UniProtKB/TrEMBL annotation:
<feature type="domain" description="Ketosynthase family 3 (KS3)">
    <location>
        <begin position="30"/>
        <end position="463"/>
    </location>
</feature>
<dbReference type="InterPro" id="IPR000794">
    <property type="entry name" value="Beta-ketoacyl_synthase"/>
</dbReference>
<dbReference type="GO" id="GO:0005739">
    <property type="term" value="C:mitochondrion"/>
</dbReference>
<keyword id="KW-0444">Lipid biosynthesis</keyword>
<keyword id="KW-0808">Transferase</keyword>
<dbReference type="InterPro" id="IPR017568">
    <property type="entry name" value="3-oxoacyl-ACP_synth-2"/>
</dbReference>
<dbReference type="GO" id="GO:0004315">
    <property type="term" value="F:3-oxoacyl-[acyl-carrier-protein] synthase activity"/>
</dbReference>
<dbReference type="InterPro" id="IPR014030">
    <property type="entry name" value="Ketoacyl_synth_N"/>
</dbReference>
<keyword id="KW-0443">Lipid metabolism</keyword>
<comment type="pathway">
    <text>Lipid metabolism; fatty acid biosynthesis.</text>
</comment>
<dbReference type="InterPro" id="IPR016039">
    <property type="entry name" value="Thiolase-like"/>
</dbReference>
<keyword id="KW-0276">Fatty acid metabolism</keyword>
<comment type="similarity">
    <text>Belongs to the thiolase-like superfamily. Beta-ketoacyl-ACP synthases family.</text>
</comment>
<dbReference type="Pfam" id="PF02801">
    <property type="entry name" value="Ketoacyl-synt_C"/>
</dbReference>
<dbReference type="InterPro" id="IPR014031">
    <property type="entry name" value="Ketoacyl_synth_C"/>
</dbReference>
<keyword id="KW-0012">Acyltransferase</keyword>
<dbReference type="InterPro" id="IPR020841">
    <property type="entry name" value="PKS_Beta-ketoAc_synthase_dom"/>
</dbReference>
Length: 465
């Protein structure tokens, strides 16, 4: 065989052809992606209408927590009380429960017999997805439509409370009581899986896990699946249920949570304010229905906005702290702008990631000034962080805040930054976060999300009018 080119096995009846040159067919243009439905479960309430109304009116979903909020029902009362006493942060943004309008109904989403494999974070996702699909009027019954509908739902931590309870059983030598549904309850991709199974969606079934950028990455990844023709419709977003003993204790030990405002819960989450001392842990879910533009038009769907840009980056700096200049945030915003084709001066509103941590808020503000320059300092660019009202929803934050950005475009109202009484010195002149909700024409809006490990995501939405 020496001197000859080995061409491998050639099936009988096939002939090899030599191409002197090869011209690839032209690459089809990327398809356009629009938002046709939204759904939310947040500390401000269950449902988009309730959450949005309370947000715009300046209400707050943060409250004081007690021992019963720690999800330690299997532990001895003295152990539960000791754990609670040791926590340095005693405030949280908790989803309101109940059977009334605007409340999350546990009986409906968590407590039925067929839901034994559904943990709290999965239940939040199911509830938000149901609202989003109904809002989009997309409940396909035809097989081909189900095959062209996918799900992209992620979470940051999954069900830590289930892990704590299972660990207790092992320590008490009671492993026989461990639920056979333990593993399916804690797997993060099961939120996406349950939504897919409930509605029979057989398109891409995907889950991102990128800490506090999870929800935004899930939406951005879903949009790309539509852009590249993998599917026509995606149910996308993030979910989190992190109000439990181990999650709160872990963030307390990390010194990431607010501790100065335990007696004034509504004032604890204060993005961009000089008095900020850490974030307020929150929970909930945000889900949107993304759809290929012509597919949406053909069926007469309501269109909230178009997703024009998706930028991602890595800080390559520190496991929990951003670079003070916000270089990762700069890259993510710049890449989202480049993909959208918009000039920075064409962006009207930014929903900032700002979590109420001293370093993170300042780094993001510096990044915004770097990218938007004169447009930011002129006062023409409106900026706010909605975490003053919702706390930090971790893996759900990026999705919920992306929906807030879409609603800001749709309703022509930029939401306020709660508890901003003394802005950080990085702000000056016309560059100042909103302290009151502002009615304005918003043709384009940016939503920032950054996570531990230096992962960054930026979503850019525009009006279709």
């Amino acid at each position: 065989m020496r001197g000859r080119r080995w061409l491998g096995f050639v099936p009988t009846g096939f002939q090899l052809r030599r191409f002197s040159s090869f011209e690839a067919p032209p690459v089809p243009p990327l398809r356009r992606v629009v938002v046709t439905g939204v759904g939310m479960v947040t500390p401000l309430g269950c449902g988009v209408e309730t959450t949005w109304k309370r947000l715009i009116e300046g209400e707050c979903g943060v409250r004081a927590i007690g021992p019963d909020d720690l999800k330690m029902n299997g532990f001895e009362p003295e152990v539960k009380m000791y754990t609670f006493d040791q926590l340095t942060s005693k405030v949280a943004a908790v989803v309101p429960y109940g059977s009334s309008s605007g409340e999350f109904d546990e009986q409906l989403w968590l407590n039925s017999k067929e839901h034994r494999s559904i943990a709290r974070f999965i239940g939040y996702a199911l509830c938000a997805a149901d609202e989003a699909l109904k809002d989009a009027n997309w409940m396909p019954t035809e097989q081909n439509e189900k095959e062209q509908t996918g799900v992209s739902l992620g979470a940051g931590t999954g069900s830590i409370s289930d892990i704590l309870e299972a660990s207790r059983m092992i320590c008490e030598k009671n492993i026989r009581r461990l639920s056979p549904f333990f593993i399916p309850r804690i797997l993060i991709n099961m939120a996406s899986g349950h939504v897919s199974m409930k509605y029979g969606f057989q398109g891409p079934n995907h889950s991102s896990v990128t800490a506090c950028a999870t929800g935004a990455h899930s939406i951005g990844d879903a949009a790309r699946m539509i852009q590249f023709g993998d599917t026509n419709v995606m149910v996308a977003g993030g979910t989190e249920a992190s109000i439990d003993a181990l999650s709160i204790a872990g963030f307390c030990r990390l010194r990431a949570l607010s501790t100065k405002y335990n007696s004034k819960p509504h004032e604890a989450s204060r993005p961009f304010d000089c008095g900020r001392d850490g974030f307020v842990i929150g929970e909930g879910s945000g889900v949107m229905v993304l759809e290929e533009l012509e597919h949406a038009r053909k069926r007469g769907a309501k269109i909230y906005a178009e997703l024009r840009g998706y930028g991602t980056s890595g800080d390559a700096h520190h496991i929990t702290q951003p670079h003070i200049g916000g270089r990762g945030a700069v890259l993510a915003m710049t890449r989202a702008l480049k993909q959208s084709g918009l000039h920075p001066s064409q962006v009207d509103y930014i929903n900032a990631h700002a979590t109420s941590t001293p370093l993170g808020d300042a780094a993001e503000a510096n990044a915004i000034k770097c990218v938007f320059s004169d447009h930011a300092t002129s006062g023409a660019l409106s900026v706010s962080s909605t975490k003053g009202a919702t706390g930090h929803l971790l893996g759900a934050a990026g999705a919920v805040e992306a929906i807030f950005t879409v609603l800001a475009i749709h309703h022509g109202v930029a939401p306020l930054t709660l508890n901003l009484s003394e802005p950080d010195p990085v702000f000056n002149g016309g560059f100042m976060p909103l302290t009151a909700s502002k009615e304005m024409t918003i043709k384009s809006g940016l939503s920032n999300s950054f996570g531990f490990g230096g992962t960054n995501s930026c979503l850019l939405f525009t009006s279709t009018n």
